Records
---
Amino acid sequence: MKLATLKDGSRDGRLVVVSRDLKFCQAVPNIAPTMQFALDNWNTAAPHLKQIYALLNQGSASGAQPFDEKQCHSPLPRAFQWADGSAYINHVELVRKARNADMPPSFYTDPLMYQGGSDSFVGPRDPVYALSEDWGIDLEAEVAVVTGDVKMGASVEEAAQAIRLVMLVNDVSLRNLIPNELAKGFGFFNSKPASAFSPVAVTPDELGRHWEESRLRLPLLVQINRQPFGKPNAGVDMTFSFAQLVAHAAQTRELCAGSVIGSGTVSNKQGDLHGSSIANGGVGYCCLAEVRMYETIETGAPQTSFLKFGDTVRIEMNDQTGKSIFGAIEQTVRNYGERA
Amino acid sequence: MKLATLKDGSRDGRLVVVSRDLKFCQAVPNIAPTMQFALDNWNTAAPHLKQIYALLNQGSASGAQPFDEKQCHSPLPRAFQWADGSAYINHVELVRKARNADMPPSFYTDPLMYQGGSDSFVGPRDPVYALSEDWGIDLEAEVAVVTGDVKMGASVEEAAQAIRLVMLVNDVSLRNLIPNELAKGFGFFNSKPASAFSPVAVTPDELGRHWEESRLRLPLLVQINRQPFGKPNAGVDMTFSFAQLVAHAAQTRELCAGSVIGSGTVSNKQGDLHGSSIANGGVGYCCLAEVRMYETIETGAPQTSFLKFGDTVRIEMNDQTGKSIFGAIEQTVRNYGERA
């Protein structure tokens, strides 16, 4: 099943069921007016939503209308929780190698996770707003899941059962603000502005054999200014599965339905700077920081600049037939001071 | 104006306006069914809520019913944001002195703030649940504000105008989990379980002359197992005002209505361990960690233990006539594995 939230002027938007081919959708106000409502009442709402989904795919839904992913907000325009893991250890290894720091052994068994801001997500086609290019604006292309209610101390198996939806995310990072902020010891705050999620969120069963042990085994496609930048497989080198990340988040507290748990920047182990770029046959990168780390390790200093006002980022994932599963995140970096 | 949320079996509870003396309340489903709804629509809802408040205080509200703070959930049972500052620098100075670390000069000008989990707050009379006493369960008595919408880069003056409500909070901390978690570099996560807020949230004007430059100048009263433990003045030694904390939170992103911003553990500068306890004429402490830091500084090791299952914590604030402003947070520590 595929779900999306259309912008309608309200804070939480309007839930729609979307056809598998992303061509049609149907609002479902009598089942669930919003995504959070559907998640709050999943056991009763999901069977009815699935019926609509089947009708949409058959072309026989009475209330079908054309689906336009450009009209979408993030599936949850605001959420009660956004917690982002760092499950692709290769990314962490490169970060630390670039600054000559050792990898603590615990990093391979105890997930890194930060609590993010979830009150003001932006839509998948909305600008990435910043007040200054000097903040060091970077994309981070990731996969995320949305959970149902999870009890404190849930097992990995229980956590796996609580995964309701899967989607993509651009977890924007302000790289030049990170060193000072992390030095203060309390984690990210100003360095993590509003994230955007893919137009469509899908149930795990929709991913078929590509959803395996709560990992999504397909390439994540990233473009910067319409040029291919990354295509790593999100199911490869993911040290911690989504079930493990959810269980980690629930170790000392209950998670409320609608909690969004991210994978961290997708990153596959590769050779060197030369061989890792898409142009040279590599799988590329899901954030600019990663190519800058390769550059630092091999040349002593980063060469590639962060995003500038006017730059565009596109994040998407296709199925084995080349069809977009989630629709595309496509954002242009804009100066917040010059917004309309 | 005073507002509260009664438990009614739903996730967001039922908004009520509460009389100044906390004796009566009235549900307002036609104005705002929930606290988040009121905050989302503050400009239209607040004048109507104030009318009800005036009638309640006059004893002439048609729908008045007895108010029982034991029936309350936290004013926002779940919120889209909970960010907690560390505005009482004395607390940070003691933390660092206890481990022989210097205070970075930036700590006096750049607020410490962490992003907390806001999806599953507990009610003011609900248990503090944990799976193990070994987690080092500690209270943190604080003041918090709830904001309206705040634009990115808002000034301190704009932030002050966006403060809608004031309340108390018990920001439970799991002290024994903190060192390992902070060493990972991504801030608090498992070490910060569900927080509880006071039964009643009040508008700043309700605090009269005690609300000054967005600081709340009254003693915060803390009991542990019904014995006085702390009474520091929340308006004293607060290095950063709430307006400064809100502006800090909004530096790189918009804040959505209903964002909860905390002060951090209230802490007044005092002399030594002996003189700081209430029994010896001091103002005491708002968390066990603070008395343990005094003990560490003066005797080389902490003596006081953290909370055990069965211990109770009470947090309250009275006006100058001794009447409770917010109602009381009163929580017993319980084993989550033995809950009903």
---
Amino acid sequence: MTAPEDLAPRRDWTTDEVHALALELRTWGDWGPDDEIGAAHWTTPETVRHAATLVRRGVAFPLALPLDRTGPQTGRTARVNPQHVMLRHGGDLLADGEAGLRGMRSTDDAVYLPLQAGTQWDAFCHIFYDGQTYNGRGPETVTSAGASVNSITRMADRSAGRGVLVDLPRLVGREHLEPGEAVQDSDLERWSAQHGVEIGAGDTVLLRTGHLARRRAEGWGDYVAGPAPGLGLSGAAWLARRRVSAVAADTWGMEVLPSECPDISHPVHVVLMVNAGVRIGEIWDLDDLAADCAEDGVPEFLLVAPPLPITGAVGSPLNPLAIK
Amino acid sequence: MTAPEDLAPRRDWTTDEVHALALELRTWGDWGPDDEIGAAHWTTPETVRHAATLVRRGVAFPLALPLDRTGPQTGRTARVNPQHVMLRHGGDLLADGEAGLRGMRSTDDAVYLPLQAGTQWDAFCHIFYDGQTYNGRGPETVTSAGASVNSITRMADRSAGRGVLVDLPRLVGREHLEPGEAVQDSDLERWSAQHGVEIGAGDTVLLRTGHLARRRAEGWGDYVAGPAPGLGLSGAAWLARRRVSAVAADTWGMEVLPSECPDISHPVHVVLMVNAGVRIGEIWDLDDLAADCAEDGVPEFLLVAPPLPITGAVGSPLNPLAIK
Amino acid sequence: MTAPEDLAPRRDWTTDEVHALALELRTWGDWGPDDEIGAAHWTTPETVRHAATLVRRGVAFPLALPLDRTGPQTGRTARVNPQHVMLRHGGDLLADGEAGLRGMRSTDDAVYLPLQAGTQWDAFCHIFYDGQTYNGRGPETVTSAGASVNSITRMADRSAGRGVLVDLPRLVGREHLEPGEAVQDSDLERWSAQHGVEIGAGDTVLLRTGHLARRRAEGWGDYVAGPAPGLGLSGAAWLARRRVSAVAADTWGMEVLPSECPDISHPVHVVLMVNAGVRIGEIWDLDDLAADCAEDGVPEFLLVAPPLPITGAVGSPLNPLAIK
Amino acid sequence: MTAPEDLAPRRDWTTDEVHALALELRTWGDWGPDDEIGAAHWTTPETVRHAATLVRRGVAFPLALPLDRTGPQTGRTARVNPQHVMLRHGGDLLADGEAGLRGMRSTDDAVYLPLQAGTQWDAFCHIFYDGQTYNGRGPETVTSAGASVNSITRMADRSAGRGVLVDLPRLVGREHLEPGEAVQDSDLERWSAQHGVEIGAGDTVLLRTGHLARRRAEGWGDYVAGPAPGLGLSGAAWLARRRVSAVAADTWGMEVLPSECPDISHPVHVVLMVNAGVRIGEIWDLDDLAADCAEDGVPEFLLVAPPLPITGAVGSPLNPLAIK
């Protein structure tokens, strides 16, 4: 038995090449000038019906990291970890003495939560490139009142469909990918062939790099804002051409960092989200799901991942559910 | 053609009768002393598989009210409406002049959010009766650190299953129920017979009273904390006996208010949640789903409703998705 | 004995007249192009020393409204009342049983606080007129990062000096002024003559209208954002010409509302703050101080009113202290 | 010329000795069973009048650290650094194009602020010892509703008086004290003799250790919650016996840490605050004031330090003002 083949090597892209790819994959106007959901249009009644047939065992896997002060945020930027506060709790019953232990009493709580502090969807309005978000919207569309267009809330009714888990450490026979390692088109092609799963229209592709598992075990360190393994530009193009609706990963930025293009910090965001209109998910916890998929050999499932309906939000926390 | 039959009248319950019903329906210990999910156990792989077969058309209905300052909260209690704040937005690009319109820029946001301000799940630890939450947990289990047991986050992997919409205004041929009107066992029986749908183990029952639609149109007024139509005690018993996993409604308290028992403000919470271990959802927006169900005549569907994974939370905002 | 003379009547100002007054009183550049404190320059070591001599009895009056959920905000805008939350409290000791009552334990708390929800200073950067704040700063100086110039924090070392209380209800022999009543130059002149107090350089003038006392007693209603008595344009000019450093009042907007100029909602803000560089305070609770001043006949005192040092803040809560 | 004498060495205290000292200095009941301000009673009209005479030059020194994300908090506990958010800013004017640059526009902001994140007063209700705060109040007095007694807000009208700066690095001829170094009675005695300043009734004593300056320069590191120089138990007793009203320092805990008593983490809090009723201030920035005092040789001044009036608060941010 031979060791599994490793990932294809990183590639270098010039800014011009990235721009050319972005234009090639751009879907602006494809669903009209007012469109706000882009590749979510590939999620159709037909793909949803098909996805439902993937519920074969009846087991569900929540894919969110706990939202609490042990999260990966460092407290050095505005994205602090979620601050969960109790507005009324059991200690208040005790403070009331015997009266507190009679009859009905309730507890209550609140949270101060940067919307991208944990497991999240980016909204299209989260990323501007040359002053525009998806479908050519300008800066004036995202103000203190929130986003008037391209908010993540627009995606709610397109947030169920087929999910496909691409478990990269298992593909290459390692525990985890290393920061800077890029997932290329040929890697996805090989994974697809190996598993007999065609990635296609309306899918949400979940890329597991093992990076979250590693940092969770070792201490978060630079998990947020640091180098990370992730999707490379050729991989992004491969997915966009197959008309996927969304791509999510177990890293803070989904794409490989540092990026493959020296002058653009997040070129995959530019290509996929700003131009192709493919939604991006980050900090998804794919470990339990991945273990199950490895065991039953079935990497596809019904994925239900609605954003929280915060009006005008440029990102959204969520608890995605994979149902097999 | 005759007018539809109206709801059965309100009934009066003594405190002793409520206590007796609570004890009868109590499931404490049925799944061991450490159990934290109660009737969610009736959600099984089998019920999930069946629920998935209800996806016949491939359309999804988000059931959450928008989370923003136009919500139903009055600002007079700690449950203010969600405070969505931008941490960085399009105006910041403009403030940077030409540089702001070149290359990649991102926006970011946060929210201060009382967890039960909008569409929500109550956690079992949300309600104490005589000093105990579900399965006999005392006040010391819910402190400033959050809930150590019975948090809503425990439910995440049991949050997909069959949903059944009981549209009460359409049952009785009116626009909406009136505050104080109680949904009784016989009403549910009649609805069930009329639609040929058996409510049963693992279901989440969605009760539409029309009260949210009315208050949304007229101004929220006392929608939160005021009188409301909702589930009566006989109806609660009927549902618990059929082993439903959860009940949600389009009102702030799910149950009829003022309650049918003069000495207990929310007796249905006591019976269903504290004793039977049936999860309760509130302020769900069921109007679009109800219109669709009226049109296609199919009031059952796959319902996916995971809580946000806020560690120790006593309630959770969510965007439930009904998929037909 | 004759009844006291009433206030001079409201006047009408055209937009051009307001503009002319603003230009006349403009102090832009008077302390250099980089100046951020304007008329606070009139607060000098000499005025501070003199103010300290006004401490004759040794009694202090805090002038802030309590910051809590009973405050005047309505919850309909982003300025919700302060949300004070406990992070750890006495009930947590009780939840720990006997151990909680042994040794040292601490409590902790936090607040979500719109900075102008209660007793406050406006910063110069709070008001733009024709795209500029005091000393000609443009919109790019106030971004998501806060104010880079003209923040209220710049005033901290100029926040002690003479305070003068002008108690208007007592001047006119009524309980309170009515919404829409304007305090004019002649009213201030008369008050000054009557009390033998020259208002002058470096003073902070506290205008009591009685409106806060009235709304506090009757229910806040439209106290915030509604019509109110307050400073008229002639009064503003009179104060600016005397080189006061700041003006504060017991209303939400300090100036008379509706304003005396149909096309400018807050012309006194434009004249005093944007142009003359006179700092404005709002929602100050002057009632106890006023009662004391009426009793001892001394309406001048040492006033110490530093802003909270929130970097880049465009307003600041504070607890001003008047020391007599 | 000889080098200045160093601080007296640390001492060891047994728990029994700390308890005995606490009982000796206890003032519970001295001002009645309902008293909530303790040694603030030593601040009298006479001491306030005297303090005002210390305003000799007319210069003011704000003593607060900036409240922003660069603060000393680590983000690992509920005490995150202050989260200042803009609710509306200059970028919003730009987003409105030409209209945004015409007429009056305003900006607004808010903050999520743990009350003891920066420069602060501890309230008496902040520290329980054996289940009691000052004057024998039990845990039931501090609940989710805040503190019903012993809140910091009670101190507002006693928050002006004489301040005395004890600059310890300058006393011992070093840049800063080292973590673990304790300020003893004899050190205070020596300082007092050297400066000819009697510390006495109603004073607020400001202890500068140089620790804040050091950590600010070097990176905050363990400034919060770590070892620190500070007041020792003998020093605390010396101050309480002189009837000071308050003690503040430039460290996170004011007292020396680790403490001089192995079984009590913060014995000076227990002695001074819980028993003697002396208010404690922490994280005060005394560097500019200290430089000025060294220059003019006058270490006493009028200190005005009112808490923010957050109802029921167990601590308070503030911007203390020293006026010389």
---
Amino acid sequence: MRVLLHPAEDEIRLENLFHALSDPARLEVVRTLIALGSEQSCNSLGEAMAKSTFSHHLKVLRESGVTRTRVSGTHRYVTVRSDELNRRFPGLLDLVERSGPPTLTEAAAAALSAARA
Amino acid sequence: MRVLLHPAEDEIRLENLFHALSDPARLEVVRTLIALGSEQSCNSLGEAMAKSTFSHHLKVLRESGVTRTRVSGTHRYVTVRSDELNRRFPGLLDLVERSGPPTLTEAAAAALSAARA
């Protein structure tokens, strides 16, 4: 199995987080994950994008420390590293969350409405 | 006189701020400006960098809305748009300030010690 690299909490650098979040599509993915509040399947989260594009965005988010990707069989699941980021750079995720509502994909909207039901 | 473009407060976009702050040198310039707390001459602020490199960084910071550049004769002065940024994206500048002490240039260190005297 391919090992996915994640920076340790104390290796997360603010400039790398800023870089990861400077792309509108990646910012949108993070806003959606924050709104959903739980781990999401990469398949459903990336349904609106070309697979290679979405994979690239997830890699940048993961390598900067914004997200954690978990592999289970042939599936991947992604989550925001909220606890670690809130400890290390308090206010960053609030800023992202407050900056606008996510434009959810259909699957994400369904997951969100299920989570709120 | 060449007109320097600055985005209006309501045109400032979070992803553009993140992009501007994703470069270590630019992040450092902003940290230094925050620490100094007042408008600085571009000549003294950029003394540690090649002039063209520093000009480019100042352009990116200005066009994203992080800083305001004022031209006076042949001199340029730069300041962080703190009031506007704190209204529009509260927490962003705190995050930058808290992320580490600035590694000041000699001129900036002198200005800082003068400001604190």
---
Amino acid sequence: MAVVHQSCVGYGAEPFASLVADYPGDDVYPSGDFRTEWGPIFHRGRLDGSARVLVLGQDPATHEAISRRILVGEAGQRVQGLLAKVGVDTAYVMVNVYLYSVFGQAAGSRHAKDAHIADYRHRWLDALLVGTGVTAVVALGDLAATAYRMWAKTQPDVAATLHLAAIRHPTYAEGFARASGKPLAETTAALLTNWNEHLGDLAAHVTPEGPTDLTPYAASWGPTDLAPIPEIDLPAGAPAWWRDVDAWATRTGADTQTKRATISVVVPKGARTWPAL
Amino acid sequence: MAVVHQSCVGYGAEPFASLVADYPGDDVYPSGDFRTEWGPIFHRGRLDGSARVLVLGQDPATHEAISRRILVGEAGQRVQGLLAKVGVDTAYVMVNVYLYSVFGQAAGSRHAKDAHIADYRHRWLDALLVGTGVTAVVALGDLAATAYRMWAKTQPDVAATLHLAAIRHPTYAEGFARASGKPLAETTAALLTNWNEHLGDLAAHVTPEGPTDLTPYAASWGPTDLAPIPEIDLPAGAPAWWRDVDAWATRTGADTQTKRATISVVVPKGARTWPAL
């Protein structure tokens, strides 16, 4: 019992208690375009005012529907690595453009300007950016940049004090390679070039918690470019492999209907610590 | 956005913050006998002092590994129905004998008296029973009754003020029918007879929150004998079907190794609210 575990305390304190009490449902997020059946997934990171960076992601993916915190999969670990470069290990908070996972390629763009979706998102951004210690916002991809700019118009004085790093989404390389037929190596290099372009400015606008390492990314992911998700970001008792880079949740099913209904959770091989069966 | 959701605030307040920080791992719970790889699952219900009944269950099952709260499956809904009969809708708290799911039939009994497992469990029972408003303990099955009596010896003065309803486990009927070859109808009738024997005494030792209904159970489960899990018992954003009586989590896999590693989460048919695919 020498191990002392950390965990996310969740949403008991205001304004978060109120925010998680009246989240929009499928009247605002149409269930044809969003996987509302898996419930909203709100955030990851510090809600106690200690965040220095806000990361704005897009929408929760498969792993997040189980862990109930956003950006815990590979995309999240890439972002975690970027934050580590600017000396931020836990002093961040992350929210998404959408509370629910987008269903279908086009749905994400289709609702980029929905007023009711924005209203609720703005309440979170107000809570996290107005009168807080956050000095920089990292927007992951175009939808996040658009969402941030919509909010910035509602709070121009606050936004004027914040640095925006509107970078490519951490899984841009995979998505663009699939869509364009270009080699993944090429799209990965483009992603990392983009991140390198923003690294210095981001570092200049964040007070680091720990050592920084502004060595640019190479043309492909290096062994230390991904950083693990800290234990303190997940709810109490969450298995350690929920924070691993090894994938552990997949949508499975022989047809579209079953696949939408199913998430298969599989303990990664490296975490199968039990005696041989 | 007219819907106001309730949710469990979790473990931010003491003594629970400390309890979830230093839970025992597989040095105390051997991974041959417990599914430690899914993490500990601590409780369900009120941690704010408003509980009037403590339910002591056995170990978390499949659904609980995902919802991260105990007794949410069919067993939990049967208990919820029992509590409703004595007028308790949300004023309860539930913990298990074991933090981790038992692996294999015999493992549960084998560790019934383990000192280190009991030490940690006693800290929870102290937190929930010493100087609180709980007046009755419902122990589900023999392991729970044994665990309660072990604790009672450490706190005899407090235990003397508490009513113990040591009832059969809510899934006793299914387990005993499988093990003995007796018809399920017969073992179900035996379970419900046992619960009926304890109903009056339990009601006499609990101040109800709402109306009571001490009509005895019939020989089989009636339509109102199971009660849904209240929304306030699950973490913020949890899908409503996580509280349904329809099963939604199963261990799948062609061999024992894969089956131990896998939980398949499937939205029940009644909760597939999306447009036809």
